[in-house]
Amino acid sequence: MPNFMVKKVAVLGAGVMGAQIAAHCVNARVPVVLFDLPAPADAKPKNGIVLRAIDNLKKMNPAPLGNPAHAACITAANYEDDLALLTECDLIIEAVAERMDIKHALYQKVAPYIAEHTIFASNTSGLSITQLSEGLALAAHASLKERFCGVHFFNPPRYMHLVELIPTSATRPEILDRLESFLTTTLGKGVVRAKDTPNFIANRVGIFGMLSTIYQAEKFGLSCDVVDDLTGAKLGRAKSGTFRTADVVGLDTMAHVIKTMQDKLPNDPFAAAYQMPAVLAQLVAKGALGQKTGAGYYKKVGKEILRLDAAKGEYVSAGATADDFIKRVLKEKDLVKRMQVLRDAKHPQAQFLWAIFRDMFHYIAIHLHEIADNARDVDFAMRWGFGWQLGPFEIWQASGWQQVASWVQQDINAGKALCNVPLPAWVLQGAVHEAGVHTALGSYSALDNRYIPRAALPVYQRQVFRAPLLGEGVSNGKTAGSTVWEDASIRLWHQDDGILIASFKTKMHVIDRGVIAGLNRAIALAEQEYQGLVLWQIDAAEGGAFCAGADLQMMMPLILSGNTAALEPEIARLQDMHQALKYARVPVVAAVAGLALGGGCELLMHAAKRVALFESYIGLVEVGVGLIPAGGGLKEIAARAVKNAKGNDLFQFLKPALTQAASASVSKSALEAQEMGYLSSDDIIVFHPYELLSVAKTTARAMFEAAYRPPLPLPFPVAGRYGIANVMAQLVNMRDGGFISKHDEKLGSMIANIVCGGDVEPGSVVDEQWLLDLERQAFMELLKHPKSQERLMGMMQNGKPVRN
Question: Which of 94, 164, 636, 745 is catalytic?
Fold first, then answer.
């Protein structure tokens, strides 16, 4: 059943998770009702608990809401007066306290108000879904039990890609299909179906991995800062590593998950590994619960980060890192070679890393049949829920399945492993032993002893490329389709559907000479042979940037040599290319995801249409490197203000965008980018990263079919001296108040001069080239300015803006 059947959602429980799930539904423009207990009799208003939770959403960091003003779209409700609202909802998500009795009592209360078509799901992080369903034991609830399942979001729900779906034996398959479709397209999630076992997949495997890491760190005498350096970004995992991740999650939360494993898995072969680490227990007992209490494994004192020295029982200076030898080993891209060195080396840090890999491989092999339908679901759960670049089965397969399996079994036989149960037979013989768990046929199911292909739900037809899986052999876009033209900077290609695609190959997809030339070529080709042109980056779905701006590295030699004049033709070529995009005879659609900064923001502003991922961060940030936008961005601000003013005071429509450019403001979501004017109100916002290309191509094709014509290059009025004077007065006040520097004032005045059309009478009519010339002249002047050069050098050397 299609995802649009979920027209309205109710969330039961306005705690941290419930409120944030409600917020993300609102992000996706899904009406939502948020329930909680009524306030005490002597307190008003009666929905006070929910109203406070909604208000808190606007203050949280990271922000749950794409636009804080949309908090007002969440309907507040309580269980005494408002249960009738449930009858209007197509999906009800329960997110109350993790106690079976509390959940069962609530189920009895709400069940009579749940419509016959409604899906009822619990957001429990580890309680048995089957036991939860027993709260719907009355005969009248029989149909509801068939529509009941687990839906486990990860915290924070807006940003964490993973959602685990957990059925009971009574859950109807079409209910799971409908919910998976909604979660995928509407909320943008990566859905993994888990077995109804304690802590499901990600927390089961992830917490075991953390326990193994803590145990092995103690065994090899490694401090928590060294372990975090070893098990963070260098290992292709979340940069917070192990102990810092525990602090962020909350040590009490981690202890709760461990306790669930202890209580529910007494006969597990790894039961001994589920013991609460002594140091963790001590910290929880003291109330040192990590980041939320200010102390855990780490503690911040002033600007200094301290780590816990467990032996001394006190905090000491942190900052120790991996040994240089290990750093070199972890840079090895060939995982076969890397794993061989870690296995053979005598260095304690290498032995530690091999031990945690071995423990993980052993664990997932033993438990695959129990926790997941196939190995793919385990890998995606760890990638999407714990921030691993590769899942554990992918790492094993890439490191040499047979050799690693042999090593693991040798350690088990030698008593070095955490349990003495041998690897399952399927690991050591048969198809998996020869080909690994991921093949072109699908991923291995230990329960069914066969390879299972990916889900074929209609929702996945919207994904031109699926999330890649190492070993599967499916193209991810780097070599897909037919290449029309390619060089070191850009690839132009198509998929035999009438749409030309331009994908940048530069680092962070910056705009260099090759990109400019390649886009000019793409425009000419598209006008001759195609129905439209889509700008899409191949790593858009994996967190890559859309475009981080112009190539500063290209500029620096000329700036340092004093030959800045040589850059003026380059700026003119950038402006001309953007104008060619804007006035192309076929629709140009920018498929935006991630960072679109500086020149990247200007690039998308010149497209005929934008299809943006919700998690897009867009802004004109040139003042951070001492420059001003010179690729037509300020010209576009002026033109759009005229369109929006509709004859009213033009400056009032210029002011917000001018301020944003002068302060290098960046949107925190695509929704906010619409409010800021970088995206238009009719631009399309997509929630799932792998749907971006499909929607962009469909949009370009629809525009072509509607007989698209580019806009006419009409002249327009500008604010002139009146607007500039208004801005200058504000800049002087800010400078005198110490809010901005003198150079900030200069940059702001130059931006105002351009956006207002220069030293002309208010209402003077200018063409676009007039403003482009002003942009280029100001940019060239700033390239010679010592303060701007300081900012440029600071960004190039340290990656951080210099304020001078």
Answer: 164
Q: Give catalytic status of residue 482 as yes or no.
A: no
Which among 3, 122, 125, 667 is annotated as catalytic?
A: 125
Residue length, the chain?
A: 804
Q: Catalytic one among 78, 123, 203, 726?
A: 203
Residue type, 348: P
CA 405 to chain centre: 34
Judged by DSSP in three states, 766 sits in strand
Hey, is 746 helix, strand or coil? helix
Q: Is 203 a catalytic residue?
A: yes
pTM to 2 decimals?
A: 0.94
Beta bridge partners of 49: none
Strands (E), 401-542: 438-439, 442-445, 450-452, 482-486, 490-494, 499-504, 532-535
Given the residues 24, 141, 152, 743, select the one marked as catalytic: 152
Single-letter amino acid, residue 624: G
Over residues 727-756, the pLDDT tens digits come to: 999 999 999 999 999 999 999 999 999 999
* Token pair recorded at residue 557: 């030699």
Q: What pLDDT sits at residue 665?
A: 96
Segment 326-361, tens digit of pLDDT: 999 999 999 999 999 999 999 999 999 999 999 999
**Encoded amino acid at 338, one letter:** R
Residue 141 DSSP class? G
Report the distance separating Cα 360 and Cα 378, nearest Å: 12
**Distance (Å, rounded) from C-alpha 495 to C-alpha 333?**
31
Does 133 participate in catalysis according to the annotation? no
pLDDT-above-90 percentage for the chain = 91
CA distance 327 to 319: 15
For residue range 354-413, list pLDDT tens digits in order: 999 999 999 999 999 999 999 999 999 999 999 999 999 999 999 999 999 999 999 999
Q: Please say whether the beta carbons of 670 and 616 come within 8 A.
A: yes
- 125 a catalytic residue: yes
